[in-house]
Predict the structure.
Amino acid sequence: MKQNLTILFFIITTVGFAQHFTYGSGGTVYNSEGKKVTPTDVRTFMRDNPEALELYNAGRSKKTFGNTFFYGGLAMIGANVIVAMNTTDINTSGSSSYPQVSSDRSNMTFAVIGGILLAVSIPVKIGYPRRIREAIGKYNSKLPESYAGNDNQIQTSIVASNHQLGLRISF
């Protein structure tokens, strides 16, 4: 009997920790209580569902690459424009009484590369939320129906006072 109760306790606590996730903006994932869940915790919960975990990791990778391309492109454009504005390429030639002044165009190669990175980042950043939503949907579909977002979830907690220690299971 003691062994059966122990097994039942572990099953209840495992199911009690199953989280129903929802997607927020910007790749943010919330649990059933509306609290933000870190990507590490989401991966921990999804480790038993490899298909959902693979989609979630792909979505997070796309978000990282999109952010890198976007901010890298902006930085390259900004740096090149600032350098071009602050350098003078003025050439003088001719006699001292009538000098000829000419100016060379600034090299805008980094600005062009930054613009390309910025343009590439847009479809990448648009595509990552779909993958994260699909991963959350696959994960939530594998949860037992009675625990997926209902208010009557099984919850376990440790209750302690001055002279006693106990375990409370609420369902």
Q: What stands out?
A: Residues 15 and 154 are 8 Å apart (CA to CA). The chain has a mean pLDDT of 80.
